[in-house]
Design brief:
The chain is mostly beta strands. It contains no helices and eleven strands. Strands 2, 4, 5, 6, 9, 10 and 11 form a seven-stranded mixed sheet that branches. The chain has a four-stranded antiparallel sheet with strand order 1-3-8-7, with no helix packed on it.
Length: 112
């Protein structure tokens, strides 16, 4: 299994970005995916999770109402739409799957 994130970049406060997490190595779409972030000098923070069968989602309180996680099973891709970005959202964002056994390399988001 391989996870590859993309879509990071620099944006001004109040701006938006959409991150992508492309998965390969799965034979179907029955895997849970989570987004995490880590700012320099801090612990890794869970951001959001999306479940396979129901498509149900859960969010950290710090991003609820601003971020939306979704998935396109045909493309084996999970997205994280981030709106109303704030400087506190600056971090390396990574996706993980299958009980967080698999991780991508991360994509940097900078809000300034």
């Amino acid at each position: 299994v391989q996870l590859v994130e993309s879509g990071g970049g620099s944006v001004q406060p109040g701006g938006s970005l959409r991150l992508s997490c492309s998965a390969s190595g799965y034979t179907d779409s029955s895997y849970t995916v989570g987004w995490f972030r880590q700012a320099p000098g801090t612990e890794r923070e869970w951001v959001a999770t999306i479940y396979p069968q129901t498509g149900s989602t859960h969010y950290a309180a710090t991003v609820k109402g601003r971020f939306t996680i979704s998935r396109d099973n045909a493309k084996n891709t999970v997205y994280l739409q981030m709106n109303s970005l704030q400087s506190e959202d600056t971090a390396l964002y990574s996706c993980a799957s299958d009980g967080w056994d698999y991780w991508g390399q991360g994509t940097q988001v900078t809000v300034s």
